[in-house]
Amino acid sequence: MKVPPDLLAFLIAQNNFFIATHLNPEGDALGSSLVLAAALETLGKKVVVFDRDGVPEFYRFLPGHERIIRSIDGIETSSFNLLLLDCNTPERAGIEGIAFRFSAVIDHHETESDFGGIRWIEPHVAATGLMVLSLVDALGVPVTRDMATNLYTAIAIDTGTFRFGNTSAEVLRTAARLADAGAEPAAISASLYETWSEARFHLLRMALQTLEIRDGIAFTFVTREMYRATGAGPEDTENFSSFPRIVRTILVSAFFREIDDDYWKVSLRSKGGLNVAALAASFGGGGHKNAAGYFVRAPLDAAKEMLREKLSAHLRVPEVPR
Amino acid sequence: MKVPPDLLAFLIAQNNFFIATHLNPEGDALGSSLVLAAALETLGKKVVVFDRDGVPEFYRFLPGHERIIRSIDGIETSSFNLLLLDCNTPERAGIEGIAFRFSAVIDHHETESDFGGIRWIEPHVAATGLMVLSLVDALGVPVTRDMATNLYTAIAIDTGTFRFGNTSAEVLRTAARLADAGAEPAAISASLYETWSEARFHLLRMALQTLEIRDGIAFTFVTREMYRATGAGPEDTENFSSFPRIVRTILVSAFFREIDDDYWKVSLRSKGGLNVAALAASFGGGGHKNAAGYFVRAPLDAAKEMLREKLSAHLRVPEVPR
């Protein structure tokens, strides 16, 4: 992958960097940020890494995760160059209104925003981690075992551990290179997928009991009452939306998480060609083609029905002659 | 991987091959057999592929699967050379007592059997498919798109799609090579993991409702009554044993499938270093280190208790001075 020369020149010329990534960070956001920070430090630069939401517990196996700060108190941001990773607006990182010396964006999400003095956006790349690896190579920094672990995690998460449509030969070859450099595929997978609490597992069982399948949509939900019954919390519902995808007849899995009375976060996961980013956008949300979400204020049944109607219209084949 | 010269010479010298693989075949058994057959046919040999149990429905995306025969009626077996793949005794393939001209074994399972005039057994190789790919290369046969799909499936299944401990850099590099040759990672994963019937999903939900966790063991079960209630069948329980592994505190997942009154098939899945093959063997069963099974005649509670006791003894740290 070709690194933009202006970005490379900027990283080489500058000395103070403030790396920020998105709220509610996952493996690609965290891994990419930690690796770019380590690479720049190898070159003698000063780097801070910021995520307002901090590192979720099950990502605390990532080497260097403890360096991620959640507050900018005491940091003279205006003397730092912002590097915004795995997102492309200050709002997504919770840093709107904060002044920086300059800003560069490195991201693989489609966007209409024009934020950033330098913008490197590659919507067809599977993970921001792959872009960061290209940067590390371009900077001439050797990939350490810690970097390999972070980048492997970044790629694993964003490709569903090599199951999603973005899993190319190049992605697999890069994973092999990172394993050669010391990443441990099985240990990383176990950290990502086999560290659930019993409470979380009980919550999943409850969510699966709510399954309702209509018109190719799998509806599941979790209520605040279920948190009380199981001892699990909202953060435990990550990926619940993916489970019903294993059913052949399901085109979209829609998972409703209760936030307040008649107020829901809806996570959509699609299979194949169906673009749920557009669907989520029509409710004021957003996301990727196969993974998107939105918030809705309505009683559960009404919220489900709104989605079902919109999706049916979306799926209906136009019958106009062409 | 080095192919034994006697095996290679044998494949080149002979003209009639009877490829057989194990009962209840999965992706590695099927994919390896289909690819070796295609490669030998490219060299002008006559090949039949046999599996007594036939091809499970969700493996019918494998190119060439329809050529697999379930009966030897009308085949003069004594004029064929047996190639036993992904298993190492005639009993595992349901062909005991059948006469062949000669026999060769190609397998990655640990064994004490000495069956086979030529034996190529590599217990440290992740999948028989990797051995077959080495053979195809050694025979000088180009890897077609169909071969790549079969071999990618073989490797994906036996590494848990690159999540198990046998996922090495070499495995990932081979997967990349196969993707280059035309295997489609996402389509294969969808075929393997996202084609469940609704009945099967309902059965899984019921099985998860039976979860009981004691001493690091997750017990789940499925009864014949549950088949009646959901419309699912015994073959739908494949991989049910793996689900509880996502819970951090669980060392072993034990899934009990009712066969008859007080008669159960037990599937064990372990995490980390725990060897369930030895545990299963102590009940007259067998398998791999992290995936094994056995049959037991006892009421369910007694059968669970027998396992719990034996596992506790197995886990107990010896306190004798050394």
Question: What would you say this structure looks like, in words?
Answer:
The structure is a homodimer of 322-residue chains. Chain A is an alpha/beta fold. Chain A has two domains: 5-193, inorganic pyrophosphatase (n-terminal core) (Alpha-Beta Complex), CATH 3.90.1640.10; 198-315, Diaminopimelate Epimerase, Chain A, domain 1. In chain A, 35% of the residues lie in helices and 19% in strands. Chain A has helices at residues 5-13, 27-42, 128-139, 145-158, 169-180, 185-193, 198-209, 224-230, 276-281, 300-315, and strands at 16-21, 46-50, 81-85, 102-107, 118-121, 212-214, 217-222, 252-260, 263-270, 286-287, 291-297. Chain A has a six-stranded mixed sheet. In chain A, strand 6 and strand 7 (217-222) form a beta hairpin. The radius of gyration of chain A is 20 Å and the shape is globular. In chain A, 45% of the residues are buried. Mean pLDDT of chain A is 94; it is low at 318-322. Chains A and B meet through helix 5, helix 6 and helix 7 of A and helix 6, helix 7 and helix 8 of B.
Summarize the SSE layout with pairings.
Two copies of one chain form a homodimer.
Chain A: H1 5-13, E1 16-21, H2 27-42, E2 46-50, E3 81-85, E4 102-107, E5 118-121, H3 128-139, H4 145-158, H5 169-180, H6 185-193, H7 198-209, E6 212-214, E7 217-222, H8 224-230, E8 252-260, E9 263-270, H9 276-281, E10 286-287, E11 291-297, H10 300-315
Parallel strand pairs in A: 1-2, 1-3, 3-4, 4-5, 7-8
Antiparallel strand pairs in A: 6-7, 8-9, 9-11, 10-11
Helix pairs in contact in A: 2-3, 2-4, 3-4, 4-5, 4-6
